Amino acid sequence: MQGLSLKSIKKNPALIPLYVCVGAGALASALYTLRLATRNPDVTWNRSSNPEPWEEYKEKQYKFYSPIRDYSKIKSPAPKYDEE
């Protein structure tokens, strides 16, 4: 297919920014998906070592960007099930 080999890119250098933008977008989406899989409190990878992983996020900020609130100073309204 024309435009997919190095030889045709040398012939048509206007395609280089297109490949750079598509490659950067694919890399950014893959990294964001990886971040969601590792940092999101809804995802649990190892239940045996931590049976209640959502308890770790009571006073943590897990949003990507929050310019309005500082979640480290806000007390969580979640109920405490381990206390009697």
Features:
elongated, 84 residues, 0% strand, 2 helices
Architecture overview:
It is a single chain. The chain is mainly α. It is built from 2 helices and no strands. The chain is elongated. The N and C termini lie far apart (68 Å). The relative contact order is 0.07.
Strand content: under 5%
Largest sheet: none
Q: Total number of helical segments?
A: 2
Shape: elongated
Question: pLDDT average, as an integer?
Answer: 80
What Rg is obtained from the alpha carbons, in whole angstroms?
22 Å
Uncertain runs: none
Q: How helix-rich are the residues, as a percent range?
A: 25-40%
Q: What structural class is derived from the secondary structure elements?
A: mainly alpha
H/E element order = HH
Number of strands: 0
| Distance between the amino and carboxyl termini | 68 Å
Describe the protein's topology.
Blueprint: H1 6-11, H2 16-39
Give a nutshell description of this structure.
The protein has 2 helices and no strands.
